[in-house]
Each structure stands twice: as structure tokens, then as C-alpha cells.
Design brief:
With 267 residues, the chain is of the alpha/beta class. 32% of the residues lie in helices and 22% in strands. The chain has helices at 3-16, 82-85, 92-101, 157-169, 190-199, 209-218, 242-265, and strands spanning 23-26, 42-44, 62-68, 71-76, 105-114, 124-131, 174-181, 203-205, 221-231. Helix 3 packs across helix 6 (209-218). The two termini are 29 Å apart. The structure holds hypoxanthine. Hypoxanthine is lined by residues 111-113, 182, 187-188, 204-206, 229-230, 232, 240, 245.
Length: 267
């Protein structure tokens, strides 16, 4: 464990207690308020040395560790994105800290644009696989052979099956699809959306893929759920904006919370 991670873990344990959290949760745009549902101490990112500053509105930049539906959870109320710094490994330290605290499975969430008419705004999409359309990788510069991470089954089959069952039990339709990562921060062009649709993408967004790669590198099981806030560029008459993303996210966030609670209550 690096000194930075050791220091962080000591500080977090002092504030949140030594019981290891089992599940990690990363909350995306417009979803950060879910951390306030967790019964436990919270630590602002600004009090966590080395934690990157999450500067995007609609995020809730704090770590909360506590019990949700009987499971000890460590939740990050906001993430930093590649486009904020140009560093694809910007979430490495927070994820290393979660791992060192004891987390063994991680649920990533994001807001995304849909390419599928049968997954409209307000719906959730379970990520089955991804396309790294940004061409960036958070493991560039990692010197160890561990950098050659297999991603054949990046998104954990068991977690996905449990999330699908949880959604089913809640009566919430949850379709699986492929998430394509664009660097952002500008939104995509209609031509880019046509291109990735041809390549097999079902949703597009500006996050999650680097964290999924880092999670597999760290040996964490990972799953990801997209909250669909809009149809992707050129697929509807609705204008695309960050304001719109934030305004639409609560629709899907309410469903996400129900699926998450049901998933956790299953153990
Ligand atoms: N593209 C990229 N990121 C997004 C979108 C989108 O259409 N909607 C929400 N996040």
C-alpha cells in the first residue's frame, strides 16, 4: 500500500470506524444526493489528502461510510472525470482507498445518453460491456505487469444477475447494453453517435470506463448502471445540456435507489 493510501485509510478509519465496508458506490451526475440516504459519518473530499476535487455541479463531493439495507457501504457522492484534468487515472487514489478499506465489490453509476429507443430517458441501463471510444486508459504509465488487465468479463456476471433480479423484484425494467466512453466535456456530434451505434454502443457518457478498468486492475468486482437522461445527439429534437442532465437524473435516480436498496437487502 502506498503511503498516500495508508494515510487516507487511517484518516477514514478514525472518522468512520474500523469495520470494513463491503460495497463501494460511485455516484454520478445528479445522483450524488443518494449518499445522504446512508446512515453514517461523512467526510468532505477536501478533508481527504490527495482526493481529487470534484468540480462538476450535480455531484456531492463527500465520502459516506455507513449501513444501507443492512450492508456496510462506502459511497462517493461524486467522481472526477477525465475531462477535468486530462488524467484518465484521476479516480485511482479514491478507488485504492476503498479497496484498502475492505471493499470487494463496486457499483458505478452514471448519467448517460441513450442510443436505443427502447431505453428512453428516465430508464436505467445495466452496463454489460464497454467501448473505450476516448482512446485513453487509466493504466498508461503503470509500471507493473498487472497493467495487462483482461477485460473479457469486465462487468461482474454475479453482480449483474443480482441487479437484474433486484430490478425485476421492484417491477423496474432493466435492460443491459454497451456503454461507450467519450472524453467530453463537449457532447457528441450526431455523426459520432451514428458511428458508435454502428460499432455496437447502446449508451454514451463521459465516465465509468476508467473506473471500471481501475477496479479490475485492483481486483474489485465491478458493475455499472447508467441513468438515461436523454437520447444521444441527433436522436431526438430535445436539446442536450448539462442542465438537462441534472434535471432529468432524479427520474432515474429514484429507480436506481429502489434497485440498489433491493440489491443490498438480498445480501
Ligand atoms: N453524452 C455524454 N454524456 C452524457 C449524455 C450524453 O448524451 N447524457 C448524460 N451524460
Amino acid at each position: 500500500m502506498s503511503r498516500n493510501v495508508e494515510e487516507l485509510v487511517g484518516l477514514i478509519r478514525d472518522r468512520a470506524g474500523g469495520d470494513p465496508p463491503e460495497l463501494g458506490l460511485v455516484l454520478g451526475s445528479g445522483l450524488g444526493h443518494l449518499v445522504d440516504e446512508i446512515n453514517g459519518p461523512s467526510i468532505d473530499y477536501s478533508d481527504l489528502p490527495g482526493f481529487p476535487h470534484a468540480g462538476v455541479s450535480g455531484h456531492n463531493p463527500k465520502l459516506v461510510i455507513g449501513i444501507l439495507e443492512g450492508i456496510r457501504v462506502a459511497a462517493l457522492g461524486g467522481r472526477v472525470h477525465y475531462y477535468e484534468s486530462g488524467r484518465a487515472d484521476t479516480m485511482r487514489l479514491p478507488l485504492e482507498a476503498l479497496k484498502a478499506l475492505g471493499v470487494n465489490r463496486l457499483l458505478l453509476t452514471n448519467a448517460a445518453g441513450s442510443l436505443r429507443p427502447d431505453i428512453p430517458p428516465g430508464d436505467l441501463m445495466l452496463v454489460s460491456d464497454h467501448i473505450d471510444f476516448s482512446g485513453r486508459n487509466p493504466l498508461i504509465g503503470e509500471p507493473s505487469d498487472a497493467r495487462f488487465v483482461p477485460l473479457t468479463e469486465a462487468y461482474d456476471q454475479g453482480m449483474r444477475a443480482d441487479l437484474l433480479s433486484a430490478a425485476d423484484e421492484e417491477g423496474i425494467g432493466l435492460k443491459q447494453g454497451v456503454y461507450a466512453w467519450f472524453s467530453g466535456p463537449s457532447f457528441e456530434t450526431p455523426a459520432e453517435i451514428r458511428a458508435v451505434r454502428t460499432l455496437g454502443a447502446d449508451a454514451v457518457g463521459m465516465s465509468t470506463v476508467p473506473e471500471a478498468i481501475l477496479s479490475r486492475f485492483l481486483g474489485l468486482k465491478v458493475a455499472a448502471v447508467s441513468v438515461i437522461t436523454n437520447m444521444a445527439a441527433g436522436l431526438s429534437d430535445e436539446a442536450i445540456s448539462h442542465e438537462h442532465t441534472k434535471a432529468m437524473a432524479p427520474l432515474g435516480a429514484a429507480k436506481l435507489e429502489r434497485v440498489l436498496r433491493r440489491y443490498l437487502s438480498r445480501g
